[in-house]
Amino acid sequence: MPDVRIKSPNIDDIFNKWKQKAYKQKKKELEKQFGTKGAVFSLDTISAGETVKETMKEASIYFLIEQKVETSKDQKEERGDIKELSKNTFYSLRGAKIEKSKWKGPDIVPMYETIEQVPCSDCKGKGYTETKCKECTNGTKTTDMIVLTGAEAKKEKKPFKYNCNVCYKTGVIRNKCKTCDGYGTTFKWKKLPVPFISKMTNVPKLYSSAPTKYEKQIGEELGELIESVEGIKFTNVKELSDKTIEPNLGYYNKNISKVVKKAANDYQKFEKDKDYKIKSPIYVFPLIQIFCESKKGKKFEIYAVGSEQKFMTYSNF
Ligand SMILES: [Zn+2]
Ligand SMILES: [Zn+2]
Question: Does 1 reside within a domain?
């Protein structure tokens, strides 16, 4: 267990480092926010004293794990008519081997090859149901005609049969099936897992007591620069506690205590789970959060992760 207090970087050093970085990456914006009309722009005119409004001392906990990437075992059957079918984006991935890190879609997708037609049970696949035509008898209409019969021209009613124009002489009316809209079929298809290549991949875990927008970026950069950023190193998760961290940081707060517990819990879960492998010790870094405002009133934050000797900066400037 470490027993040397780690010094967090001082505000002027952080501010200067941010200034240099911003000058390289966002010179125009820097001039706009801090320049004076008519005067030659110089970095020296940007001072921490005038820009920094508030600072918070926080902490970030970092460790690296390896995670097993495997094809999901979930699958789902969906049903619907042609409209609902067409709403889906289908995939064809038969025989494909896919790297999860390069895959941009969801983990489970509707597969083209699984689309099947299902005969509509309400109309037995015909697309319509039949009812007897009310206008006729078996397709034939009958009317009475007055016929003057014989030499005496005797008035007689005689039936006359003709074709029905409602059912087109079939005697039945076809009603479009509402369930299948006349298609006679509905559709079913499956959402199946994308066939990812099963392998272990590195996943940096970062827990910050003041969550920044840069958690992912900080985690990845710490993974690469872990030796060049100074932190408090723990090889045994049981030593990770308020009691050990507070004296090493030289400051503490409720949020730090919370993330320490969360990180320790997660770490122990990863230790027990065979789908994970712990790949690094646990590091605790001072995280300094600086709230700033430019001459022109633009509000932004600067974060520093690391010690007085070695730290990295991030900003939303
Ligand atoms: Zn009819
Ligand atoms: Zn139907």
Answer: no
Which residues have CB less than 5 Å away from ligand 1 (the ion)? 133, 135-136, 164, 166-167
Å from CA of 75 to ligand 2 middle:
27
Q: Which ligand is nearest to the CA of 168?
A: 1
pLDDT of residue 3: 54
Nearest ligand to the C-alpha of residue 131?
1
Which ligand is in closest contact with the Cα of 142? 1
pTM score above 0.70: no
**Within a domain: 3:** no
- Give yes or no: residues 187 and 219 share one domain: no
What integer is the mean pLDDT of 258-284?
93
Range of the domain at 267: 11-69+199-315
Residue 4 lies in a domain: no
- What is the distance between the alpha carbons of residues 300 and 293, in angstroms, rounded to a whole number? 6
Rounded Cα distance, 163 and 272, in Å: 83
Number of domains in the chain: 3
Cα 169 to middle of ligand 1, angstroms: 6
Does 31 lie in the same domain as 87?
no
Question: What would you report as the CA-atom Rg of the chain, rounded to the nearest whole angstrom?
Answer: 38
> Among residues 86, 87, 97, which one has the least CA distance to residue 196?
97
